[in-house]
Structures are given as structure tokens and as C-alpha cells.
Design goal:
The chain has helices at about 50-65, 110-115, 120-125, 135-145, 150-155, 165-175, 180-185, 200-205, 245-250, 310-320, 330-335, 375-400, 415-425, 440-450, 475-495, and strands at about 5-10, 15-20, 25-35, 45, 75-80, 85-90, 100, 160, 180, 190, 195, 215, 240-245, 260-265, 270-275, 285-290, 300-305, 345, 365, 405-410, 430-435, 465-470. It is built from 15 helices and 22 strands. A seven-stranded mixed β-sheet has the order 16-17-15-14-20-21-22. It is of the alpha/beta class.
């Protein structure tokens, strides 16, 4: 068998291709950004054609860097930004409209109408999700209702829907229209129990079943086909796995036992708790989602706390406020002060996700006095990442009855030493980062390798996980609780800002 496994990691701001060896060590990577298209307030789009072109480029460049060919890869996995919605023509392969990104809030009226009409409970019961702008179902409905000719094309079987995993699979294979349960469970259209599209849910959103992809296990030796000989890999390679990015990170962190959890810090934050082979319904604002399904096995479920704006709040300091020139500078600026100086920043730019689910919220910086400086705002920004995580951990512990002993972390923000120390302080538990912090791509590679026998079982992967850093809490209980109480007070100030009808 070949010596390596590859992974396409198609994220919100960039796409990369990474190659790993049997020990889970990174061999090579290349990464390219794509444009963030912001047509008006609350709208966020990507160009699907640009994403495919970037995917081609990163695959070809990584193979060249590593001096490898398709023959050196036992399999390739795909992981992706999840709810982002693409609709394209079956015959031409051309998108009808830009991809509507998970952060986009144009469907707020659709979501609020579902609640008013009493359909929210049906969606929660079957799909494990609240009606929200976050998920794909309403985004598909918006395209069908607002882009000329698409509804007729969908009813005629010409228009196809996919999240970005499906879009890339279609292009890599020359026409495979498939997805996996982790992505399908983010649409508001899949029944969590049957792992199939649900007729009642499709009717609620007015979506023809014919435009939806087939659902295959996340790790499957045959379900996703092989890459085209004339494609960016230059030959046929088994596509062994597809996983939404947060579920892939859970696999990459080897959270295979119920009660194990990880938190990924990227554009947003995503904390997943493995709950085993039975879905746990949340009473505290969390999502019930599919964690992964390996071929021939029962699906494994998770509780998820999704936070819309964390790492992107740091980007906002750079791009909109101009108080830092790069993300790494946020740490140096925040270290200039001992504490937040009474400043709290709630970055509810597109409403609040878990556990609040308030699309009427908007961002606020509160507690300002003339004493405060840019450094206090930078410190409050890092603290906002960590306080939002505590909101989710509190809800998760109430739902599951499991108390967190340690938080496994990954993603770009974990390079910020101060932020990770603040996270330990605000939670009151240790924070642990693995040697390979890019666990999203690693999880996709693991799942693809398991599908083709590159790794025999999940147990073979256990020795690959090694701790790189650990941050121990240093705040007193009183300091921790006072800070959290003030955070909750700040959150209250952001609510009821936008009128949603």
C-alpha cells in the first residue's frame, strides 16, 4: 500500500491540502485564501468556482512540494465548512448563484416564520436543530425563491444542491453527487434517526428531493468513488471519507469515547461532546448532530455548541478597526494590560449562536471609560472567545451530566498563548493542545485511511496523539465567577437590537 494519506480541508476563509504519514505526522501542505463576498449587511457569499480552482491549485502544489504523485496516496479525505450552500446545474456544472455561507443571515425571516408557525419543534425533533439562519435548508429555499429559473430547474431534476464537500466531490470525480451524515445533519432536512432526507422537512422548506445528494457513511471504502485521472491528483485515488470540519476535528482529536470533547478555534468556535450511539436532545440551546459514521457501524452522535464569531473577531480588529496589523499582534497588544479594565466585547456580528440562538443580537463593546485603551479592547476580544466557550460548556454539562475534566483544543487561535491561558482561567479546567494542531485535516485523513485499511482500527491511532502544551487555570473561583457574571450582563445588552419579523 502507498505510504501516505491526503486531506482536502475546505474552510471558510481558505482551502488547503495536507499529506500525512502513518504516524499522523504532516508531510506537506499548501493553502490558498478565497474571497469573502459581502454584498450587503448580513450577507456572506463565496464563489464556488473560485473554491474549486483553489482546491485544484493546493492539491497540485502540495504534491509538487512533497515530490509525490497520486501513487503515493492510499486515499484522500475531504473536510469542509459545513452549512455553506451551493446549487449548480447537473449538465453544465455551473453554479446558479454564489455559495451562501453559514455566517449569512439573509434567511432570518424564514427562520422566525418557522417558529411562529409552530414548525420549529418538528425541525428540532427530527433534525436536532433549531430553525436558524446558520443551517442549509433555509439557504436552499432562498435560492429557489429568489434566483430566476432555479426552482423550475430543481423540479426538473437539473439543479443540484450540496455543501462544499459535495461540490468538490462532484468536480473531483466527474459527477458523484454524495455527502455524509455529518454534513447532511446540518441542513435541517435529515432525520437523525434514519440518516435519510425527511419528506416532512423537505415539504416545510419546499425543497425537491431530487436536488439532494445521496448520504453515505463518513468513512466508506466505495461510497465516494475515485478521483479523475485527468484531475489535480493526476490519477485515480480512492476518496475514502467525507466529514464536516468540526466532526473531522473530533476524529482528529481521537474523541471516540462518550464523554470526550474537543473545541476548535477558527473563524468561529465549535465544541463537540461525543454522546455515543444514541442522540441526546438538548434542553439548553445546543445542537444534536452526527459526530461520524464508519462503514458498517452505527452512527456516533454529539452535542455541539456552535459559536459564530471568535477568530473572526480578531480579524475585525485588524481589518475594520485597524488596531493590529496581524492576528498574532493581538496577543502582544492584549499583554500590555493586566486585565480587561472593565471592558467586555460581545461579537454578535451575525446574532448569537449557541446557547442563545438570537438572530436579533448585534455586537457590543460595553464598560468603556476614558481609562481604557486599544489594549483593553484587544484583551476583551480574546476573553470573548473564552467566555463564549464557557457558555457552551455550561450548557453541555447541564444536558449531559458530564463534567469537563480537560478541554482538548485545536485550530489557529490555539497559537495565541495568552488566549489559551485565559481559556483555562475562565473554565477552571486544564486546556490541552496536541502536537498536530491541524486536527481537522488530520481527522479527514484518519477517516479516509481507515476506509481503505491504511490504519486497521481506531485503536491504531491512539499512539499518534501527543500533547504539545497544557495550560492550567490560575484565577481564583471568585475572580472567575465575577468575570462570568459581568460577561452575562454584557450579553444581555446585545439582545433585541434588530427587529426580526
Amino acid at each position: 500500500m502507498a505510504d501516505f494519506v491526503g486531506a482536502v480541508d475546505q474552510g471558510t476563509t481558505s482551502t488547503r491540502f495536507m499529506i500525512f504519514d502513518y504516524g499522523g505526522n504532516e508531510i506537506a501542505r499548501h493553502q490558498l485564501p478565497h474571497e469573502q463576498i459581502l454584498p450587503q449587511a448580513g450577507w456572506v457569499e463565496h464563489n464556488p468556482t473560485e473554491i474549486w480552482e483553489r482546491t485544484r491549485a493546493v492539491i497540485e502544489t502540495t504534491l509538487t512540494k512533497a515530490k509525490l504523485t497520486h501513487r503515493d496516496l492510499a486515499a484522500v479525505g475531504i473536510t469542509n465548512q459545513r452549512e455553506t450552500t451551493v446549487v449548480w446545474n447537473r449538465r453544465t456544472g455551473r453554479p446558479y448563484y454564489n455559495a451562501i455561507v453559514w455566517q449569512d443571515t439573509r434567511t432570518d425571516r424564514i427562520a422566525s416564520a418557522l417558529e411562529r408557525e409552530g414548525k420549529g419543534e418538528v425541525i428540532r425533533r427530527k433534525a436536532g436543530l433549531p430553525p436558524a439562519t446558520y443551517f442549509s435548508g433555509a439557504k436552499i429555499q432562498w435560492i429557489l425563491d429568489n434566483v430566476e429559473g432555479v426552482r423550475q430547474a430543481a423540479e426538473d431534476g437539473e439543479a443540484l444542491f450540496g455543501t462544499t464537500d459535495t461540490w468538490l466531490l462532484w468536480n473531483l470525480t466527474g459527477g458523484a453527487h454524495v455527502t455524509d451524515p455529518t454534513n447532511a445533519s446540518r441542513t435541517m432536512l435529515m432525520d437523525l434517526e434514519t440518516l435519510d432526507w425527511d419528506d416532512e422537512l423537505l415539504e416545510i422548506f419546499g425543497i425537491p428531493r431530487a436536488m439532494l445528494p445521496a448520504i453515505r457513511p463518513s468513512s466508506d471504502p466505495t461510497g465516494y468513488g475515485v478521483t479523475l485521472a485527468g484531475g489535480p491528483l493526476g490519477g485515480e485515488v480512492p476518496l475514502g471519507a467525507v466529514l464536516g470540519d468540526q466532526q473531522a476535528a473530533t476524529v482528529g482529536q481521537l474523541c471516540f469515547k462518550p464523554g470526550q470533547a474537543k473545541n476548535t478555534y477558527g473563524t468561529g468556535n465549535f465544541l463537540l461532546l461525543n454522546t455515543g450511539t444514541q442522540p441526546v436532545r438538548s434542553a439548553n440551546g445546543l445542537l444534536t448532530t452526527v459526530c461520524y459514521q464508519f462503514s458498517g457501524q452505527l452512527p456516533v452522535y454529539a452535542l455541539e455548541g456552535s459559536i459564530a464569531v471568535t477568530g473572526s473577531a480578531v480579524q475585525w480588529l485588524r481589518d475594520q478597526l485597524g488596531i493590529i496589523s496581524g492576528a498574532a499582534q493581538s496577543e502582544a497588544l492584549a499583554r500590555q494590560v493586566e486585565d480587561n479594565g472593565g471592558v467586555y466585547f460581545v461579537p454578535a456580528f451575525s446574532g448569537l449562536f449557541a446557547p442563545y440562538w438570537r438572530s436579533d443580537a448585534r455586537g457590543a463593546i460595553v464598560g468603556l471609560s476614558r481609562y481604557n485603551t486599544n489594549a483593553h479592547v484587544a484583551r476583551a476580544t480574546l476573553e470573548s472567545i473564552c467566555y463564549q466557550t464557557r457558555d457552551v460548556v455550561e450548557a453541555m454539562q447541564q444536558d449531559s451530566g458530564v463534567r469537563l475534566d480537560v478541554l482538548k483544543v485545536d485550530g489557529g487561535v490555539t497559537a495565541n498563548q495568552l488566549c489559551m491561558q485565559i481559556q483555562a482561567d475562565i473554565l477552571g479546567v486544564p486546556v490541552s493542545k496536541p502536537v498536530v494542531a491541524e486536527t481537522t485535516a488530520l481527522g479527514a485523513a484518519y477517516a479516509a485511511g481507515l476506509a481503505v485499511g491504511f490504519w486497521e482500527s481506531a485503536e491504531d491511532l491512539e499512539s499518534n496523539w501527543k500533547e504539545d502544551q497544557r495550560w492550567e487555570p490560575s484565577w481564583s473561583h471568585e475572580q472567575r465567577e465575577l468575570g462570568y457574571a459581568r460577561w452575562k450582563k454584557a450579553v444581555e445588552r446585545t439582545l433585541d437590537w434588530v427587529d426580526v419579523t
